[in-house]
Amino acid sequence: MKHGLQRAILVAGLALGAAAGCPPALAAGHPPGHILVLIGGDTYFGESYQEEYARKGGTNILLEKSYDYGLANLSALLKAVDFRILNLETPLTPLRNSSLNGKHYVHYGDPAKTLEVLDRFGPIAYSLANNHTLDQGAAGLDDTRAAIATAGARCFGAGRNLTEAQKPLIQRFQLGDRQLTLAVFGGLEYTRKYDDEFTFYATADRSGTARLDASSVSAVRQAIDALRRKEPEVFTIYFMHSMANYSWKTPVQAANAQMLRQAGVDLVVGAGAHMMQEIEHDGGQWILFGIGNFVFDAAGRYGAENAPAFSLPLVIDFFVAHDHLQQSLRVYPIVSDNTLTRYRPRFVTDAELGVVDSLLAQRGNWDPATRAAVKTGKDTIGNYIELFGLKPKDPVAP
Q: H or E segment at 8?
């Protein structure tokens, strides 16, 4: 599918979406005996971008509309689940004096407004393992963690030292007479520039993010082994952040995902590229290399980079069947190009769903068996793609 045709379908879908209005209201609750967990991609209300646009004579969408504006079409999804995990792609701090000379796109965000809008939907946690968490230095990271704690939410993937940064988020749920323990790790793809020039990665005595490379995976394996000795049914997720922008997966992402699966991670989910990336099956489990943006209030570079303007918020459905804890995965594709949606991301139309499905099949090199394990559909939230055949306790052989 050519990108020009994708964009034509997107523009047509925008007009259709405007005529149809918001997605239908969510049916109350969900089936008993299920726990739904949302994982959303890059999230930032874009204060640094919006203020720059206004300085150049444009519009600051946050002042013209509000922080709620961009979530209007996604609120049903946020309300539908029991727990939410978002990649918070900014420090939350009043600081505006970054010393990161040479770093493009330095972020900052309003702590009170950001968290008030996002936290209202229910229990939530934020991954800080990304390439903007330290944009305002260690003080900005301290402000972010303090604001999240004050709001009653939690975070992972960064901390005052390496031990804190590597510590997974632990969330427990009751499923009938069974306890589900969810352990979510976060890590930022390692690059020498972000280590030597920007000092983003945590060390034994330095604040920063958890790093993701071959040297860090042994710690993940040890942590998972320790968790499973205490709680055999723990389900582990690694939320990995890549350095690739507006591109499909890189060899580094592929290598990192393989190492994490070999270390015993049940599900690898990526973010950072601002667009959807490949979904592949490694013989034991699905790997979602990049789920793109959730709400990200920058104009974006989809047209300039010839990138498909779709993202893939993920919902994991945990339930017990045949006396075993099981999971199913659904992604709800959204349009993330703010030049098309006017900073209000929306779920894809039927035609756009076909584009996303075809792109994923092509890029993921799905064989007939894999193709048969992927189904499209629509529910009260929107169009979705469901992934079947999960085997979370069967990591790839080393």
A: helix 3-20
